[in-house]
Amino acid sequence: MDLCHVPATREKGWYLALMAPNIKGPNYAWLDPSRLYCHPQGLQDCVADLLQPFQGDPIDMVAGIDAMGFILGAAAAAVLQKGFLAIRKAGHLCVQTLAQPYTDYSGREKVMEVRTDAISAGLRILLVDQWVETGGTMRAAIELVERLGGVVAGVAAICIEDSEGGRWIRERYKCSHCVPPRLQPRFDHHQ
Fold first, then answer.
1. N or C: which end of the chain has fewer CB within 10 A?
2. Does the pTM exceed 0.85?
3. Cα torsion for 13, 174, 96, 99, to the nearest 10°?
4. Closest CA to 85 of 150, 137, 26
5. Which helix (H) or strand (E) holds 66?
6. Which of 74, 83, 143 lies closest to 112, judged by CA?
């Protein structure tokens, strides 16, 4: 798809066609959203779709998860006129942090961390990432926010797969994603 082309009718998720499939193997996500982020209208519509369910909800801050969640999270924070917090993979922050181990979508053991002075008790945080596949990364971010006394105001991602972890998150938190219901089975099976 041309990075300047905008369809005449823009249904929710029209921009999903901008994503490219994985050609590098199982240690990579199955779709790359970089072209979606390069498309001005695609990115705007994606962020609008992610934020629509949270209109009127009290949100104090947006947190994006390392690394692609930084892009969507910062864009969402700008639209909401809220601050942005980066939840990082361990070893990148030079300040006092709280760490949380997790297993990512490829089965690798990792550690996520957040600075301890950014979240105060009762602060309502919208968590944003590009994708929730197994839910391990998002669940680690949720645990970090809650351990610091913050409240998860919601979870937003381009796709939240119908996995055990995805269901755990949906059952406990208000969620938003961009995949229309008719396409969800294809995304769940990586087709």
1. C
2. yes
3. -90
4. 150
5. none
6. 143
